[in-house]
Write a structure and sequence with these properties.
Layout (H helix, E strand, L loop, with lengths): L1 E3 L8 E6 L13 E15 L2 E15 L6 E16 L19 E4 L3 E3 L1 H10 L38 H13 L1
Parallel strand pairs: 5-6
Antiparallel strand pairs: 1-7, 2-3, 3-4, 4-5
Length: 177
């Protein structure tokens, strides 16, 4: 979604955009959309800069980290970013250390702000670190790949070498019974 700043009114620009299929590049992402994102907000002039505030709403599908079951995850992501004209920062040469307050800055060129990168960046930053279909998820059998939430596999469970001595002791105790 491109916002043109050519004829920006003094009270800012409001936007509300529902993305359509193929409009965002999602190749190589760890998720897929169940509902395409909607981005709504406003752009206000702050001196030479543009402040973009709004919210991204969507629903995406991610796999459970243990059993790979698909989980629908709805999100509502508020954002605020300051866009600076690209010409303003082009005079600096060499490596520059970014300060914390500079992480909320981006640049724009040709009196246009493209929100597509912002939308994908915000969605990826807000993905959960750990996704479980349920807290007691048993995952997949490491040998046969069976979903242990749905069935009990027939694989013989290898004994961890650190517990081998105790397994032998347990076997001896069972023989004596």
């Amino acid at each position: 979604m491109i916002i043109s700043l050519v004829r920006m009114p003094p009270d800012g620009i409001r936007f509300n955009h529902q993305y359509q299929a193929g409009e965002l590049d999602t190749t190589g992402r760890e998720f897929e959309f169940r509902e395409l994102p909607r981005v709504a907000g406003r752009v206000d002039r702050v001196g030479m800069d543009m402040r973009v505030r709004g919210e991204i709403t969507t629903m995406f599908v991610v796999p459970c980290d243990r059993c790979l079951t698909e989980i629908e995850t709805p999100v509502a992501i508020p954002f605020e970013l300051l866009y600076t004209p690209a010409e303003a920062g082009s005079g600096q040469a060499g490596e520059i250390e970014l300060q914390k307050q500079e992480l909320d800055f981006a640049t724009f060129e040709n009196d246009e702000i493209n929100l597509d990168d912002l939308v994908m960046e915000q969605i990826e930053l807000n993905l959960p670190n750990r996704v479980l279909c349920r807290e007691a998820c048993r995952g997949l059998c490491p040998q046969c790949g069976a979903d242990l939430n749905l069935e009990q596999c027939q694989c013989s469970q290898p004994i961890d070498p650190r517990w081998q001595a105790l397994a032998g002791l347990k076997a001896e105790m069972e023989k004596k019974k």
